[in-house]
Every structure is written in structure tokens, then in C-alpha cells.
Task: structure prediction
Amino acid sequence: MKLVIGNKNYSSWSMRPWVAMRHFGIAFDEVRLRLDFTRGSAFYRELARFTSAGQVPVLVDDDGFAVWDTLAIVETLAERFPQHALWPADAKARARARSVCAEMHAGFAALRDACPQNIEARLPAVGARVLAEQPAVRADLGRIVAMWRDALAASFICSTAHCWRACGLPCTPAGANASNWRS
Ligand SMILES: N[C@@H](CCC(=O)N[C@@H](CS)C(=O)NCC(=O)O)C(=O)O
Result:
């Protein structure tokens, strides 16, 4: 089984299933493609060998069967590896975890635009300016911290993995641990 990903430093989407799989000790070969969103780039050409979806991450079976999109990948892993508690056993906790993942997946546009993931960079002045000048980012951040607190309290890895995007900001416990995950 392969996980096709982009640059770990930039591709928060790639790191979602990567973090979950590493956390649970699910074996996979990592295929790393250098992100290049130029039309016809090597990134898109290489990616097309695995999927027509045109985006990473992609989970690829040995027979070439591909599952794309982070939520679909995590659901597939949960089905295939029931011995690992990818989703909580308790039905309400599971529903909560799915809500958190879905919200993370679909929302936080202001935060995404203003603070794309860059784990290596240290940009406190930029972060401070963005927070001061952009109320929509402040609102996203407030929501993400509240949501994350819930997720950590319930200690389910899927939500945590899906909240990776926030790690670029110096406001969450996981932000401090981002470089550990990366290494
Ligand atoms: N909905 C997708 C989003 C993935 C995504 O946006 N991946 C970016 C890399 S971080 C990508 O491959 N972008 C290429 C493109 O959109 O053309 C998922 O959850 O897997």
C-alpha cells in the first residue's frame, strides 16, 4: 500500500492520513511528489499515474486501486484496520469526531488563505498582523481552538490529524508539536 503525498512542509492535506497512519503503525510506502501547481508540471504528470483526481493525498493499493481525498482515505483505513481505533467506539464520540473532521475539511477558508501551512517558517510578525487585521481569521482561530479542545478531550486521532492545518499558528498545543510529527 502506498500513500502519495506532496511536500510535508506545505501540504497539510497530505499530512492528515500520513499522521494517522504513522500514529497507528499502519505500514505504507511513501511516495513524495514535489508540489508544483503549474499546468502540465511533473507533479501533475506523476500524480496522473495514480489517480485522475489531480490532488494529493492518494492511498494506492498494490493492484493500483486508488482512494483519494483525506476523509475517504481515513474512512477506508478505519474499515480495513478495525483493530485500530481510528474512530471512537462510542457512537456519540464517533459522531462528534466525524463532525469535527467534516468541519475541518470544509471550513476555515479565511485561516487557510491567510496562513497556509509552512512548518519550517517562523513568522510571528506576520501572524500577529494577520490576527490584528483580519477578524475572519480570528473567528476561525477561536473556533478551531474550541473544536480542538473537544477533540483532544475525546482523544481521537482522526480529528487531530485533520486539524493539522492549524499548526502554522502559535496558538495550539499541537502547533508546538508539529515539528516532532514532521520528523
Ligand atoms: N479535498 C482534498 C484536498 C487536497 C488538496 O487540496 N491537495 C493539494 C495539495 S495540499 C493539491 O494536491 N492541490 C493540487 C490542485 O488542487 O491542483 C483532500 O482532502 O484530499
